[in-house]
């Protein structure tokens, strides 16, 4: 097995050896704490029959641990300066493939077919670049990849929004989108001190366990998400006001009747509606051609 990358001294040595300069614009904050790495990897419930997709391996801190825990690892890194470093730090790991690409531009279905057709399950495990957390996660979910779970380090504030229940200030369209596909749980809150360089936001590890089927049934998924977006459009407004801004003021009476029929008070705010209630609302509006 190879030398541990995730220690302050080894990370500094590697950075120095290659004259590597951190790019803030790529969200480069490398992990230097093995405790956190163990927590991340164990949350993913890997074994030698499983595959792991890592997004943004950096200099390989997490990748090494994944190589030990999973049967196969594919790591996608956008920064070409890191590719030779990874070749070095991962030299001993024969089950790791590093791909130089922007994960947002990659055909992940094709990658899964090529790389993970022979494993019993796949997890995405990553310390994500915070500037693109949401686009990356939404791509993973909307592509309907055959994933068991996603375990990622993200900004704590975003983790709170993903895991939020109806009624609070954190609950919004991101909560609904994530919970439609997954069951979220926060694995741990992470201090600044476990990164080089230290980020200026708080971090958390979140686990998203993929549901076998979406949390609610809807006649038209795109419509469901439009209803959700519209209901949260202006958070201080009532559901009725948000819906009528979307569908037109002339629909207010129809909307009132419909909301009453499905037992939702038109004076409520979007942020109090559960996924079930959004599904009911979407179904009713859709049936009425709205
Ligand atoms: N996994 C390493 C660790 O934990 O020490 C590095 C994590 S660092 C927070 C994020 C990594 O994602 C960086 O290596 C960065 O270059 C890479 N990255 C940023 N944007 C990316 C993208 N669009 N596609 C793939 N990798 C990306």
Q: How would you describe what is shown here?
A:
The chain is elongated. The protein is built from 12 helices and 9 strands. The protein is an alpha/beta fold. The chain has helices spanning 8-17, 34-43, 61-69, 83-89, 108-115, 133-142, 156-163, 173-181, 221-231, 239-247, 252-261, 275-287, and strands at residues 30-31, 51-55, 72-77, 96-100, 122-127, 149-155, 182-190, 195-196, 203-210. The chain is 39% helix and 17% strand. Bound molecules: S-adenosylmethionine.
Task: Provide the spatial order of strands within the biggest beta sheet.
Answer: 4-3-2-5-6-9-7
Ranges with pLDDT <50 over ≥5 residues? none
Rg: 22 Å
Structure ligands = S-adenosylmethionine
Q: What is the global morphology?
A: elongated
For the largest beta-sheet, the strand count, sense and barrel status come to: 7 strands, mixed
Quote the beta fraction.
Answer: 15-25%
Average predicted confidence as pLDDT: 97
Q: Helicity level, as a percent range?
A: 25-40%
The tally of strands reads 9
Distance between the terminal alpha carbons, to the nearest Å? 60 Å
Order of helices and strands: HEHEHEHEHEHEHHEEEHHHH
Q: State the secondary-structure class.
A: alpha/beta
User: How many alpha or pi helices?
Assistant: 12
